[in-house]
Amino acid sequence: MRIGCPKEVKPQEFRVGLTPFAAAEAILRGHDVLIETGAGLGAGFTDDDYTAIGAQIAPDAKSVFDVAELVIKVKEPQAPERAMLREGQVLFTYLHLAPDAAQTRDLLASGVTSIAYETVTDARGGLPLLAPMSEVAGRLAPQVGSWALQKANGGRGVLMGGVPGVRPANVVIIGGGVVGAAAARVAVGMGANVTVMDRSVPRLSYLDDIFMGKLTTQYASAAATAELVQTADMVIGAVLIPGAAAPKLVSRAQLSTMPQGAVLVDVAIDQGGCFETSRATTHQDPVYEVDGIVHYCVANMPGAVARTSTQALGNATLPFLLALAGKGWRQAIRDDAHLRAGLSTHQGRLTSPPVGEALGIEAVTPDQLLAG
């Protein structure tokens, strides 16, 4: 199969969809790999790194999209990229369609078969292709939040760990999954006073055990959230409903109850954000203020540490990539129910019911599509 990897064009996105290691694995199995020139530079991979293992270098994105049967990326295709997609082609990348009607319409119009990283599952009920980036984003969240807390950046001027005689920052993490646990690990390590909220009592018990009393757990409710944000220096939104739009857990009205200069870090922004006042930002212009509260809502947080992120993502996607290339998408998803869960569009049909519900578009399940 002809596998193509274009350079990412989303602002300040430095990751690449295919590492030289992954490309080599595909080539060893008889596949052709085409990489757009310069695609790996942001992650520290040169064109020579790819040609050394047998990949071909394309002069531009169009040259990749024109010949690739399987296109592998990191971020959702931008409008110019979506115009190059076609029926019969397979797109394998993060999509986050629920809050993005324009992208969904374009994918349906193109007829492309798209498979979303973020809804591929595993036998334990996890999201194996989202997990590595969730780990990265979670670990980054307290770091970028502490930067935003600095007075020069609009924040309260609070040091995460405090100093002797001065209390540390109060950090509230909404969601105790992969992102929340990773954020808690770093925030606790920075010396902050950390509270993690979740609606799963077993998950809260697990976090209480592994952190051995170094953080506070709180069952998540609207009332508890409203109370905790009133004294929070930083709130990290770490909630996820796979494939669906994120719920709004902090309202604009609640901002007035928070300390002036407090920081909201919305890791759920790819799914529309979990704060009412969230809107996507970029690494170039990462923060804005609403009612005296600093918002950090960068939609591709892991892109800030592109080499680590690319390697982690490449490790996770490789088995699925090889299955798609080796068997073809239809047989690959027949054989693997977990990969099948990632199917999002095919020949103008939406195959993700949560996206259909969010956008008011009729959808079928991947099983129904295969049965038809």
From TrEMBL:
Keyword annotations of the record: NAD, Oxidoreductase
Catalytically driven reaction(s): L-alanine + NAD(+) + H2O = pyruvate + NH4(+) + NADH + H(+)
Gene3D superfamilies listed in its UniProt record: NAD(P)-binding Rossmann-like Domain
An MF annotation (GO) of this entry: alanine dehydrogenase activity
Protein name, as recorded: Alanine dehydrogenase
Broad enzyme group: oxidoreductase
Domain Alanine dehydrogenase/pyridine nucleotide transhydrogenase NAD(H)-binding stretches: 149-297
EC number: 1.4.1.1
One Pfam family of this chain: AlaDh_PNT_N
InterPro entries: Ala_DH, Ala_DH/PNT_CS2, AlaDH/PNT_N, AlaDH/PNT_NAD(H)-bd, NAD(P)-bd_dom_sf
Organismal lineage: Bacteria, Pseudomonadati, Pseudomonadota, Alphaproteobacteria, Rhodobacterales
